[in-house]
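FAQ

Q: What does a record look like?
A: Structure on top, sequence underneath. For example:
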């Protein structure tokens, strides 16, 4: 398994391209602004197909480059939790006017809690983690000890819960569940550097112990 990360857009949001290089296939996690073209170049260089873009949630900074992806991979499916599709259909910030527009689109399918996605030998399970956004999901790869956390959990912090579509009580429940994953699980967040569940249990002030 290879993980390629690229960070971009006004909120410095992380995109991840996770590849099974032997099977020449990869899955994309989130599509922040100005992140997708370089990742697609890596995929094209290695002749990896990308059948799936999995969105952790519908906030503008995680979906901005969706069209760049779908133009390059028109057969690929773009999936999101049902409760966050409204933001994909009507993209934008709830807090300020974006200096660019994001093309609206519908999901090609919905991500249910517990859904399993297999791309080559890579297996990811969706974990419904509402709070930061009502339809937020994280993706867990048990065999690879990997959590793609979106805006649930960051190194030393958590996703904000003061947005119009946030729910702090749901966030607390989602965090309490996610920190029960094995402590050596590598966490790749939607913003900032990688961490582990164990490191956050030790040092994150927003995690109740
Ligand atoms: Zn967000
Ligand atoms: Zn974000």
């Amino acid at each position: 398994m290879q993980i390629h990360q690229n960070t971009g857009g006004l909120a410095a949001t992380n995109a991840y391209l996770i590849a099974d290089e032997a099977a020449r296939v990869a899955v994309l996690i989130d599509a922040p602004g100005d992140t997708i073209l370089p990742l697609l170049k890596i995929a094209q260089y290695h002749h990896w197909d990308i059948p799936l873009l999995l969105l952790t949630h519908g906030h503008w900074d995680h979906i901005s480059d969706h069209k760049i992806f779908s133009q390059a991979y028109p057969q690929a499916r773009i999936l999101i939790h049902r409760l966050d599709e409204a933001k994909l259909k009507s993209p934008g910030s709830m807090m300020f006017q974006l200096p660019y527009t994001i093309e609206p689109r519908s999901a090609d399918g919905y991500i249910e809690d517990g859904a399993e996605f297999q791309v080559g030998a890579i297996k990811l399970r969706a974990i419904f983690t509402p709070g930061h956004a009502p339809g937020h999901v994280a993706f867990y790869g048990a065999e690879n000890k990997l959590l793609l956390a979106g805006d649930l959990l960051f190194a030393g912090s958590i996703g904000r819960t003061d947005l119009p579509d946030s729910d702090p009580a749901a966030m607390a429940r989602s965090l309490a569940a996610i920190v029960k994953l094995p402590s050596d699980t590598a966490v790749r967040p939607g913003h900032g550097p990688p961490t582990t569940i164990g490191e956050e249990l030790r040092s994150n002030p927003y995690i109740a112990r």
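Q: Is there anything notable about this one?
A: The chain has a mean pLDDT of 97.
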